[in-house]
Amino acid sequence: MKVVIVGTNHAGIHAANTILDNTDDEVVMIDRNSNLSYLGCGTALWVGRQIDGYEGLFYTKREDFEAKGARILMETAVDSIDFDKKIVHAVTKDGQAIEESYDKLVLATGSKPIAPNLPGKDLEGIHFLKLFQEGQAVDQDMAREEVKTVAVLGAGYIGVEIAEAAARRGKKVILLDAMDTSLSNYYDPEFATLMDENLRAHGIQTQFGEMAQGYEGEGRVEALVTDKGRYEVDMVINAIGFGPNNDLGKDHLELFTNGAYLVNRRQQTSDPDVYAVGDCATVYSNALQDTAYIALASNAVRSGLVAGFNLAGQDVEHVGVQGSNGISIFEQKLVSTGYSVKSAARFGLDVDYVDFEDKQKYPFMPEDENAPVKIRIVFEKGSRRIVGAQLASTYDMSATIHMFSLAIQQKVTIDTLKLTDFFFLPHFNQAHNYITMAALQAK
Prior knowledge:
The protein contains 11 helices and 25 strands. Helix 1 runs parallel beside helix 7. The chain has a 5-stranded parallel β-sheet. It folds into 3 domains: 179 residues, FAD/NAD(P)-binding domain; 126 residues, 3-Layer(bba) Sandwich (FAD/NAD(P)-binding domain); 110 residues, FAD/NAD-linked reductase, C-terminal dimerisation domain (Enolase-like, domain 1, 2-Layer Sandwich), CATH 3.30.390. Strand 5 and strand 6 form a beta hairpin. The chain is globular, with a radius of gyration of 23 Å. The longest helix is centred in the C-terminal third of the chain and has 15 residues. By secondary structure, it is an alpha/beta fold. 23% of the residues lie in helices and 28% in strands. Keywords: FAD, Flavoprotein, NAD, Oxidation, Oxidoreductase, Redox-active center. Its cofactor is FAD. Belongs to the class-III pyridine nucleotide-disulfide oxidoreductase family. InterPro entries: FAD-bd_OxRdtase (IPR050260), FAD/NAD-bd_sf (IPR036188), FAD/NAD-binding_dom (IPR023753), FAD/NAD-linked_Rdtase_dimer_sf (IPR016156), NOXase (IPR058076), Pyr_nucl-diS_OxRdtase_dimer (IPR004099).
């Protein structure tokens, strides 16, 4: 069998590896980029000089796949697909038109940045941040001495992270978002405002509840105009968000409400010979108990594995996802999984929640090893199953969210959690730990 994979991002990489490791099938990997397997989530780390360089952000290379027998076509753009004849049409960087037939096709085309059509959008100094080359452009522009003030549009994960990076580079940073807080898609205001306060404490100017309306400048951006003000800036980074890249299959494949390819639990699209993985495809949300769109690298990896195993002849169903995520900015850490109270209402879930806050360890433990942890557990009123959790601390409590992710997947109720066996030792935690104490608050 011949499998053609369009896209060598996280999802495409893991689909390819799984097929190559489990079959002797012919695998052809096509990507318009010049590199593969870039960890975009690490861009802010090297732009902010928290790591020495970007080299370690590439976790594999084309030679690894070629050694397993794959044929790789980099800097080759797929411009159309004949789904009836099963032929992929592409163009190389030299302008040569090529065709690749397939028995099975994997679309791993990822997502595209949301780019509002604002006046002045073509001025120099306005950047997006997804590809490695875009990270390089941001890094190089930020190195210019005349760049004193950087505006970041969008206070989601990428926006907050690159705002921190710019501040670490000594820039004045203005962070703007249409919502009332940062990270509003993942956290309730009681948690998001902790990050807002943290950003402001480190000199980042937050302008929330504002909509960008245009850019001003002669050749290069000099100002950002919103519905509430005008800000003089030397550089703009657009991090508003992303949407599924469905350009190749939108006229042939069934789509979700937001345009993502609608897939089953085996990553198959409405065309049984076409699979879709990663940010271009839907997922099954265990919290919602329904199809959803959650663009995360962790989800992309798992979808690639599921598609790969099924293409290798193993009947594997995706167990679903929770959308677990986390962020660490100037030592303030937030992690979440499932739905917040705010997002649950948006998706029609009738929920209640419990909050608790305590130190990670007993008060007699050294202060520099101890820190308060704030937790919220969200559960469905009728079934009482856990559908979300959020934690905040300067202590690394991130592993806790994996337990809540599994709890959502297994439909654990808030009442079961009340008496769940959690070990304690002063070196690690308290006997009356914050998870148990939070669950006990549930009426």
